[in-house]
TrEMBL record:
Listed NCBIfam families: OPT_sfam (TIGR00728)
InterPro entries: OPT, YSL-like
Membrane topology: Multi-pass membrane protein
Organism: Ceratopteris richardii
Protein name, entry field: Metal-nicotianamine transporter YSL6
CC annotations in GO: membrane
Length: 489
């Protein structure tokens, strides 16, 4: 895919360009300034999170994270600025259209749709249900979000498969052996030959890949059914037989468009295996099969992005592969310990808490639909889901049909769906970050282009790192001394 197909892999190419720029005098100077800037905002973000911790108390709705900056009525509908350095940083680093799409989704859902459905309590669904009862408002939030996500995923899956098919077909018509996506100019041939030589000389032998995949499949077939009994051994075997074809499609599509649709392939596996297993543990079987499929398919495109970076930086693919294995071995230790720390220290999965784990709820409900069918949906929810599924398709078609100067203002369905379940507060944070970047670009575009990513990364990392001492304090029984909260008088 890198040498014969000459696929672009935009993210991998961009990373390689950035790395190569560090090894020029100008690039090294800019890199030093960026690192200094990142460290500064990392420290400020960490200290700000530490300061906020003192006011978060042990009661409900305590701290800056629950500050009703836009008023109590807006706060009741999750419209408030929660002073999160992470989400403001995400707003700075994300494109403006993404931030605006998220805000549009927040206004559409929490400003219009959910208040309207709430007014139908006692008519569409029983009044007085709990906040996490799927027969009430909670069910509408989750299932409508699922419909938008599925609509966006189905469209992009079809789009990338069509692009891939057209590329291969057009190339076969010209009687070339493999599809050449990009052709170098004559002056670049010598450099490309040098990169090809390094890449092939240090390549990973095919027999290593084949034997490794077979060995891991054998281990998975034996072990995964012991961890998740409803996922029978033949389900796992089928996943490993089908996954390579899907992984190829995903890796090829990512090389052309930079889109990884691993979650879409995972959802397809989820529905298939959940309905296959049925009421006999179908929910767990669907979720476990989805995990297996997504792990295989996403790894293919992620590794290809890395190998494209390695190719353009004249790095050894064999060294990169060994590094990936080392990282994986570290991950099987660090990831479960991190999960355990969060699970013990925080209230994971609470719909009203800080760590809502929204995708866990969404994927579980998808699996439930695979088992129970549409009977799992609340009243009138199916009609809403169909409408939003069609709207997601229509928005994608419109974005790809109109000229770019108009398409850049059309909201992105996947981004619209995110606040449907989580709430509007993070959309406000991201929008604040987007406004900061917009103003900065108008005042000094060059400076914003150089430092915006570093500042955003520092803000995100500083706030994220604070969760480690915060979790340790919680495990040791040390609680914040102050509860800052607001209520109407």
């Amino acid at each position: 895919m890198v040498i014969d197909y000459k696929l672009i892999y935009p993210s991998g190419t961009a990373t390689a360009t950035l790395i190569n720029s560090f090894h020029t005098p100008e690039g090294a100077d800019v890199a030093r300034k960026q690192v200094k800037c990142l460290g500064k905002y990392f420290t400020l973000s960490f200290l700000w999170s530490f300061f906020k911790w003192f006011f978060s108390g042990t009661g409900d709705n305590c701290g800056f994270d629950k500050f009703p900056t836009l008023g109590l009525q807006a706060y009741a509908n999750t419209f408030y600025f929660d002073f999160s350095a992470t989400y403001v940083g995400v707003g700075i680093i994300c494109p403006h259209i993404v931030n605006c799409s998220v805000m549009f989704g927040a206004i559409l859902s929490w400003g219009i749709l959910w208040p309207y459905i709430t007014s139908k309590a006692g008519d569409w669904y029983p009044d007085g249900l709990g906040s996490n009862d799927f027969k009430g408002l909670y069910g509408y939030k989750v299932f409508v979000a699922i419909s938008v996500i599925l609509g966006d995923g189905v469209y992009n899956l079809a789009k990338i498969l069509i692009i891939t098919g057209k590329t291969i077909y057009a190339n076969s018509k010209t009687k070339q052996q493999l599809p050449i996506v990009s052709v170098p100019e004559e002056g670049e041939l010598v450099e490309e030959q040098k990169l090809d030589e390094i890449f092939m000389k240090e390549g990973v032998p095919s027999w290593v890949a084949a034997c490794g995949y077979v060995a891991l499949a054998a281990v998975a077939v034996g072990i995964i059914p012991l961890l998740f009994p409803p996922l029978k051994w033949y389900f796992v075997l089928l996943c490993y037989l089908v996954a390579p074809a899907l992984a190829f499609c995903n890796a090829y599509g990512a090389g052309l468009t930079d889109w990884s649709l691993a979650s879409t392939y995972g959802k397809l596996g989820l529905f298939v295996f959940a309905s296959w297993a049925g009421s006999n543990g179908g929910v767990m079987a669907g979720l476990a099969a989805c995990g297996v499929m997504m792990s295989i398919v996403s790894t293919a495109s992620d590794l290809m992005q890395d190998f494209k970076t390695g190719y353009l930086t004249a790095s050894s693919p064999r060294s990169m592969f060994v590094s990936q294995l080392a990282g994986t071995l570290m991950g099987v230790i660090v990831a479960p310990l991190t999960f355990w720390m969060f699970w013990v220290a925080f209230d994971i999965g609470n719909p009203d808490g800080e760590y809502q784990a929204p995708m866990a709820v969404i994927y579980r409900e998808m699996s439930l639909i695979g088992v129970q069918g549409f009977s799992a949906l609340p009243s009138h929810c199916l009609e809403l889901c169909c409408g939003f599924f069609a709207a997601a398709l229509a928005l994608n078609v419109l974005r790809d049909s109109v000229p770019l100067k108009y398409a850049q203002f059309i909201p992105i369905p996947m981004a619209i769906a995110i606040p449907f379940y989580i709430g509007a507060y993070f959309a406000v944070d991201m929008f604040v970050g987007s406004v900061i970047l917009f103003v900065w670009e108008r005042l000094n575009r060059k400076e914003a282009d150089v430092y915006a990513g570093a500042i955003a990364s520092g803000m995100i990392c500083g706030d994220g790192i604070w969760t480690i001492p915060s979790a340790i304090l919680a495990l040791c029984g040390v609680n914040p001394p102050i509860c800052m909260s607001f209520s109407s008088t």
